[in-house]
């Protein structure tokens, strides 16, 4: 069983899909692991560390691999070298780019998009969205504090009192919860909102205030949110409009799977905020929760800075990579028998839920239905 770890080719992607620990674990299971030279550089994992774990280091990888692990969708060049039937596993970005998915299918690989991992208890250790969103939520608050020209905690000094910053977190999934916890640790006064009612208890347990409009619970059975009705959108917008005027920092994290991110902070709301306020839009890659945010830019609008850094987890590649790698290793474990052979159990919920392509065709119902 040959496992290949290529260097990520997407601009700005500093993570790598393996760690020395996962390499060791694969080798223990009888695999041969090849890591592309320099693949770990962005995550501060030198080639030597992979070599010490037992990996071969080569200038290019993939051609003879049975399994290729990636953080992002691989380049066309890598896809064209894959063996037919090779397993491709990673963050394959399944939403909104059918042509890209068809290119993966055309490679003949059996491809697994880890973003589609079902939200079941057993799958938690394989969930790249959670492991990465947690870091992104933390980094969003740290970045907001960096751009903010004031302090987060209250300080009473002989020269006067510095008031605590007011931080509002919109969307209380994995990223939002970590953002609440981080902002609280820094001493801010924190409030948060979501459209899933279950989040109220979580917000309160972290010591933040819950801001909730009188709307229907938008939770789905899969643990995600669905889009609000027009009436509920209006109710939520009115509540948010009132609240944001009083806030110094807003972190938006609201996503709806497979749909553009919902607009939560309109231009008018931005203009109602005090100069010097900061918005960090974690949903920028999916269209943004604020229409003014731009990918990888800091937009200044009437004194308010809107930070649209994409791939915030990737900015913490030293932590994000080992966690991502462990998610992949845990998933791959489902396909390795005790004897060290590869076996894909089509009936397994996690395998079925993430498999997007096989034998040259797209196979996931989300992408095969017209
Ligand atoms: P997500 O990244 O899809 O969305 C972020 C948050 O935005 C969600 O809480 C969502 O409800 C919220 N949101 C959507 N539209 C909104 C709007 N208009 N206004 C305000 N908020 C809005 O979510 P996530 O981080 O992936 O987590 C979703 C849920 O799934 C959480 O409860 C999480 O604990 C759960 N989860 C379960 C598992 C598992 O069991 N394996 C794994 C990961 C997450």
UniProtKB/TrEMBL annotation:
<dbReference type="InterPro" id="IPR036291">
    <property type="entry name" value="NAD(P)-bd_dom_sf"/>
</dbReference>
<dbReference type="GO" id="GO:0050661">
    <property type="term" value="F:NADP binding"/>
</dbReference>
<keyword id="KW-0521">NADP</keyword>
<dbReference type="InterPro" id="IPR007886">
    <property type="entry name" value="AlaDH/PNT_N"/>
</dbReference>
<dbReference type="InterPro" id="IPR008143">
    <property type="entry name" value="Ala_DH/PNT_CS2"/>
</dbReference>
<dbReference type="GO" id="GO:0016491">
    <property type="term" value="F:oxidoreductase activity"/>
</dbReference>
<keyword id="KW-0547">Nucleotide-binding</keyword>
<dbReference type="Pfam" id="PF01262">
    <property type="entry name" value="AlaDh_PNT_C"/>
</dbReference>
<feature type="domain" description="Alanine dehydrogenase/pyridine nucleotide transhydrogenase NAD(H)-binding">
    <location>
        <begin position="145"/>
        <end position="308"/>
    </location>
</feature>
<protein>
    <recommendedName>
        <fullName>NAD(P) transhydrogenase subunit alpha part 1</fullName>
        <ecNumber>7.1.1.1</ecNumber>
    </recommendedName>
</protein>
<dbReference type="InterPro" id="IPR007698">
    <property type="entry name" value="AlaDH/PNT_NAD(H)-bd"/>
</dbReference>
<comment type="similarity">
    <text>Belongs to the AlaDH/PNT family.</text>
</comment>
<feature type="domain" description="Alanine dehydrogenase/pyridine nucleotide transhydrogenase N-terminal">
    <location>
        <begin position="4"/>
        <end position="136"/>
    </location>
</feature>
<dbReference type="GO" id="GO:0006740">
    <property type="term" value="P:NADPH regeneration"/>
</dbReference>
<keyword id="KW-1278">Translocase</keyword>
<dbReference type="GO" id="GO:0008750">
    <property type="term" value="F:proton-translocating NAD(P)+ transhydrogenase activity"/>
</dbReference>
<keyword id="KW-0520">NAD</keyword>
<comment type="function">
    <text>The transhydrogenation between NADH and NADP is coupled to respiration and ATP hydrolysis and functions as a proton pump across the membrane.</text>
</comment>
<dbReference type="GO" id="GO:0005886">
    <property type="term" value="C:plasma membrane"/>
</dbReference>
<dbReference type="Pfam" id="PF05222">
    <property type="entry name" value="AlaDh_PNT_N"/>
</dbReference>
């Amino acid at each position: 069983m040959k496992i290949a770890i290529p260097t990520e080719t997407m601009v700005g992607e500093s993570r790598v899909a393996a760690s020395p620990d996962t390499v060791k674990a694969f080798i223990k299971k009888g695999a041969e692991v090849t890591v592309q030279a320099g693949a770990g550089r962005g995550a501060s994992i030198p080639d030597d560390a992979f070599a010490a774990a037992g990996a071969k280091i080569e200038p290019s990888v993939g051609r003879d691999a049975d399994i290729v692990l990636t953080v992002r969708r691989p380049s066309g060049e890598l896809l064209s070298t894959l063996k037919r039937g090779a397993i491709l596993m990673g963050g394959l970005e399944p939403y909104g780019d059918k042509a890209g998915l068809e290119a993966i299918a055309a490679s003949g690989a059996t491809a697994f998009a880890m973003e589609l991992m079902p939200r079941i208890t057993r799958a938690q250790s394989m969930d790249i969205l959670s492991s990465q969103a947690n870091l992104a939520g933390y980094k969003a608050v740290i970045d907001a504090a960096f751009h903010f020209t004031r302090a987060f905690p209250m300080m009473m000094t002989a020269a006067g009192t510095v008031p605590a910053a007011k931080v509002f977190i919109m969307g209380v999934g994995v990223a939002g919860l970590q953002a609440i916890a981080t902002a609280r640790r820094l001493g801010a006064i924190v409030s948060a909102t979501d459209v899933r009612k279950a989040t109220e208890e979580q917000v309160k347990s972290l010591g933040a205030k819950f801001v909730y409009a009188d709307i229907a619970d938008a939770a789905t059975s899969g643990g995600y949110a669905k889009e609000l009705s027009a009436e509920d959108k209006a109710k939520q917008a009115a509540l948010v409009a009132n609240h944001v005027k009083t806030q110094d920092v807003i972190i938006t994290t609201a996503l709806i799977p497979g749909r553009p991110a919902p607009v939560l902070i309109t231009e008018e709301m931005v203009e109602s905020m005090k100069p010097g306020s900061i918005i960090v839009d974690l949903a920028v890659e999916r269209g943004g929760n604020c229409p003014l945010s731009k990918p990888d830019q800091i937009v200044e609008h009437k004194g308010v800075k809107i930070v649209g850094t994409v791939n915030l987890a990737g900015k913490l590649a030293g932590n994000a990579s080992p966690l991502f790698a462990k998610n992949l290793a845990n998933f791959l474990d489902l396909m390795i028998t005790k004897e060290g052979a590869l076996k894909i159990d089509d009936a397994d919920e996690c395998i079925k839920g993430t498999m997007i392509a096989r034998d040259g065709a797209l196979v996931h119902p989300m992408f095969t239905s017209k």
